[in-house]
Amino acid sequence: MYLVLALGGMAGALWLADRYHLGAAATATSLLPTLAPLFLSWVTFRASVQRAAEQSLEEIAAQLAQAVKSQWDAETRVRRLNDPYPLAVSWEAAPEGLVETWPLLRAIAADWPGGPGSDPAGWAGTPAELAGAGAEITQLFARSVPTQRLLVLGPPGAGKTVLLVRLLLGLLAQRAGDLGGRGREAAQAVPVLFPLASWNPARQDLYAWMSERLAADYGSLAEPAPARYGSVNRARALLDHRLILPILDGFDEIPFGVRGTALGAINQALPLGQAVVLSSRVAEYSEALRPASGVPVKLVGAAGIELCPLSATDASAYLHRDAGGAGYAADRWAALTAQLGTATPVGEALRTPLMLFLARTIYNPRHGELTADLPHPGELCDTSRFPTRAAIETQLFSAFIPAAYRPHPRYPCRWTARQAQAALTFLALHLQLSLHGTPDLAWWQLHRAVPVSIPSLIAWPIALLTSGLLTITAATQEEGGIAVKLGVALAVSVIGLLPGFALILPAWLVFEAERRQPAASIRWTWNWPRLAASLAVAVLIAAVLLDMEAPAATAVMTVLGAGIASGLGTSSADPALDVGPLIVWAQDRRVFWQLTLAAGTAVGLGPGAAIALAGEPLAGLLVGLGMGLWIGLTVAFSTTVWGLFAIVCYYLALRRHLPRDLMAFLADAHERRGVLRQAGAVYQFRHIDLQRHLAS
Question: What is the pLDDT, as a whole number, of residue 528?
Answer without folding.
Answer: 67
